C-alpha cells in the first residue's frame, strides 16, 4: 500500500477508519480509476489494476464500489461535477438575457474543452458501442440535463408566452450549437479555436438564438 493510501486508511482510536479517512480513501481510489480510464480506456481498466494503482486490496475496493460500472459512474459524476455551473447559478434573472447566455456559453465551452472532459468524450466515442455502461454513466451524471433546465427556466422567465416544448427545443439547440464545433476542433477535427474565436462563436450563437425565438413562437402557434 502506498503512502497516500496508508494515510487515508489509518484507523481512528476506535479501530475503524474515521469518516474523513474513509472519504479520503474513496477519493484516492477514484483518482486512480480516473487516471487509468482516461489513459488506457474502459476495456483495459480492470478492478485489479485500479486497486493496484490505488495501493489497496480488492476487499477495500469492493467495500466502496459494488462493481466496475458503479466505479465508472462515480468517476464520470465527479468529472462532470468539476465543470458544472456553481450552485445557485441563475443566468442573471434580473439582468440582460443575452449577457447571461453569453456568460453561460463561455462557461460551457470552457468545460467542454477542459482536458479531462475531452478525454472522457474520446473514451465514450471510442468504447461506448462495446460498453454501453459508459453512456449510462454519462446520462446519470445529469450534466446536460441540468444545463438545459437552467436555460429553459431563463428563457421562459424572459420571453412571454414561450411554451415549455419550445423553450426545451431552443435550449437543446443552443447547447449543441455552442459546444459541438469548438469541441470537435479541440479534438483535432480542424484547428482549435483561439480564445477570441471562442468568444465570437458564443456571441454569434446567442444572437442566433435570440433572433430565432420570435420565429419559434410563431411556428409553434396553432393555425387559424
Q: Your description of this structure?
A:
Mean pLDDT is 86; it is low at 10-14. 26% of the residues are buried. Helix content is 72%, strand content 0%. The chain is built from eleven helices and no strands.
Feature tags:
Arc Repressor Mutant, subunit A, 11 helices, mainly alpha, single chain, 2 domains
Task: Give a summary of the structure in a few sentences.
This protein is mostly helical. Helices cover 72% and strands 0% of the residues.
Topology diagram in text:
Layout: H1 3-9, H2 19-40, H3 47-54, H4 58-64, H5 68-81, H6 97-112, H7 115-127, H8 133-141, H9 143-158, H10 164-186, H11 195-220
Helix pairs in contact: 1-2, 2-3, 2-5, 5-8, 6-10, 6-11, 9-10, 10-11
Tally the beta strands: 0
> What string gives the helices and strands in order?
HHHHHHHHHHH
Tell me the domain tally: 2
Strand content: under 5%
Poorly predicted runs: 10-14
Radius of gyration: 21 Å
Largest sheet descriptor: none
- CATH homologous group name of the largest domain: Tetracycline Repressor, domain 2
Fraction of residues in helix:
over 70%
> What is the typical, i.e. mean, pLDDT?
86
CATH top-level class of the largest domain: Mainly Alpha
Structural class designation: mainly alpha
> How far do the termini sit from each other?
74 Å
CATH structural fold name of the largest domain: Tetracycline Repressor, domain 2
The number of helical runs is 11
